Amino acid sequence: MVKTQCFRLMVAVVVTALALPAAAGELRGAVRSVAGEVVTIRCDGGVSPNPGDPVRIGFDVPGVGFVPLEGSWKVSLIGPGGEVQAAPTTARHGEPQAGHIALIETAATAARPAAGTPVPAGPATVAGPDRSGLPPIARKPWMGLRLDRTEADATSGVTIAEVRPNGPAARAGVRPGDVILAAGGAPTPNSAALDRATENLTPGMSLVLRLLRLPDIVEVSVSPDLPLLDDPAVQTAIGFAFLTGSEIAPDEAKGVTWLERAAARGDQDAVQILDTYRNRSSGGGRSAGNRPAGVYIAGTEEGKRPAWFILETGIYNSVAAAGAPVRDLPPDIWPRRNNLSSPDEVFRSLQPLGGGWLLWVDVSIHWGKIGFAKDRVLVQCFDPSGRIEWEEEASNVMAQSADHSVQLLADKIDKKLHKKRGKPCLRP
Questions:
Q1: At 352, which CATH number?
Q2: In the 8-state DSSP scheme, what is residue 271?
Q3: CA triplet 178, 64, 204: central angle to 5 degrees?
Q4: Residues 213 and 254 occupy one common structural domain
Q5: C-beta separation of 222 from 169 below 8 A
Q6: Is residue 330 part of a domain?
Q7: Contact 49, 106 (CB under 8 A)
Q8: Does 55 reside within a domain?
Q9: Residue 388: per-residue pLDDT
């Protein structure tokens, strides 16, 4: 019965697609956002249609073509640069999502708004379709994912902490809590492996993610696209890049503007960065005593087996038990927090925001199959000026397995950090 229903559905999809070829004078665009029943569409080629032009919304199926959603829409509002809004014309209609395809039947040839037509407002309109003046984060394809910051086991996959609404991963059906086991056929035991597997993404390409979704293993196909400029997380990253001059000429005014947009939509990272920036600007961040409480955690690792994220979890717990809050690293170094060149790289990133205390975690894993290890973890506490306040080291030379060796290291460094409670980096 299920197979019969699936077959009928496939036939219906194919027949519908074949019955709806692209019409003459048809503009192709993409859904940018959806608010209630109003759909905002960015048209290709910068050409604006006319109010009342009929619109079909759907998606492409490989080997089949365009498959429309139920119902139809019409152009109701003309904006600048090929952006329009459409409203449904049928009582029953599908649910458009950002990224869906829009086909508009029109005779329009000029890319200009109709006289007296309201112009939609918002960050994406302000930025315009030209992203050349924006930081690289706005010009590189993304999947719309945030990874678990603790990653309890760095050898079994990368856990997804958040899926951004209307992003490529959300449209593909990826869920928070899924564990990425492979990307494009390449195993991803940790976030560094995932970065390598996705470093050459281009907009529109298809990337197959193999996911652990207990109790099943599933595969989804994600089509990376340019980041949505109205996504608060993207706005925060853009604002921070302008504020700090990360890969782009610094422009504090633009940085604050983008961060304020994100903060107005409830992005707590943007709120925190703005608070720290304003504290610094008013003079409150010029002395260590006035800097916001808390500690940053970053470091580096080398050896035969990644273990930094496993040890990081225990160190987070030690810091939390001491009553010292952990502060989020700036977006430009957050993805590489276990693969930084030195503490100086962290302080360069923190300097525009007023600096802060740092726990530097240096991990080296060289466990051998015969049971001997040369494994070590070094934890150093740096004050906001970059001076070492104290350091603790734990090492191991024999273990039953690589996992056992890392566990021994975690236990040893936890005991040493416990004795450091009340010292700098480990106090409220």
A1: 3.40.50.10610
A2: H
A3: 50
A4: no
A5: yes
A6: yes
A7: yes
A8: yes
A9: 94
